[in-house]
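Journal club side-thread
Mid-discussion, someone asked how the predicted structure for our own chain would compare to the paper's figures. Pasting it here so we can look after the session.
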Amino acid sequence: MRWFSLVIKRWIDLFIAIVCLIVFAPVLLLCALAIRWKMGPPVLFRQVRPGQHAKPFMMVKFRTMLETRDADGSLLPDWERLHPVGSFIRRLSLDELPQLWNVLKGEMSLVGPRPLLMEYLEVYTPEQARRHDVKPGITGWAQINGRQEIPFSKRLELDVWYVDHWSLALDAKILLLTLRQVLRRSGVKPGQDVRDVDDLGLNRHLRESKGHGK
């Protein structure tokens, strides 16, 4: 029964999130102090992202980039704004730890499609939009099958595959493979230029939308 499996998934999310917040409390504190000391406030990066059924929620991460702007007042590319402390935190995937709070609140799950930008919603195909049929996750099927090394189109395809094949056993597999990936620090590219993997033109659409005042 799928509904019963979803109840178990929620209890697993709560249990692991609480345990991780307790176990990693010293790490969370050290990250927060390092960011505050080297980069200044704020410590956390907050941004509205689409959740299940595209319902907006406030996602939290550790801040890893500066707000450096060019002469026109526009933010510099991500790779130029990435602070050395932020790069270190990203390489160890520690920037994702605050999202355990989103899991506790029920806005995210440990496993699910990564929450992308709200602006992307209007350019998804109906098939790609099905990634929002489930809660977004801290890790997911796309993250253990290439992570930042695969193009956006493949990531969305893998997200929809997860939606269609979800099971508790699949979640367990993803969590174990994520742990191995984090320990090996594979698939992480701090400061990656999204243009290298954005084969759908999602960020081009975002820039054009902002340019038209949307």
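Post-session note: The first helix runs from residue 2 to 23.
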